[in-house]
Write a structure and sequence with these properties.
- This protein is α+β, with helices and mostly antiparallel strands.
- It contains two helices and five strands, in the order αβββαββ.
- The protein has helices at residues 5-11, 58-74; strands spanning 18-21, 25-29, 37-43, 81-84, 100-104.
- The longest helix has 17 residues, at 58-74.
- The protein binds adenosine monophosphate and zinc ion (ZN).
- Zinc ion (ZN) is lined by residues 1, 4, 6-7, 46, 97.
Amino acid sequence: MDNCIFCGIVSGAIPSKKAYEDDTILAFYDLNPQAPVHVLVVPKQHIACADEINESNSGVAAHIFEKIPEIAKSLGLTNGYRIVTNCGDDACQTVKHLHFHLLGGTKMAGEMA
Ligand code: AMP
Ligand code: ZN
């Protein structure tokens, strides 16, 4: 989709530091890390946020969750990790392309909001 930063990263037009890639998804390091390990896992197809997951595209969301354990292991996250997805304005979603923050490498705060 035009003007979408993460579509630009998927296409290679915008550079990123990749952590994992296959035909369907890409994981890359967040530019502004909020934990010692902070990567974003995104579908290659443009889906705006979790609110747009439906019967026709939920396979990609399932694939992301199938791959997260492997990605986490490859990043050395052996003591746990947090997965966060922001959807919409109240959640302060800034990039309107579905992404899952994978955070770890430290003991994180218990509060979620
Ligand atoms: P969210 O607030 O959930 O929409 O998160 C968007 C995330 O994308 C933020 O953590 C940003 O630091 C990150 N981000 C924005 N642009 C880039 C980029 N070009 N490369 C890597 N991460 C980015
Ligand atoms: Zn996009």
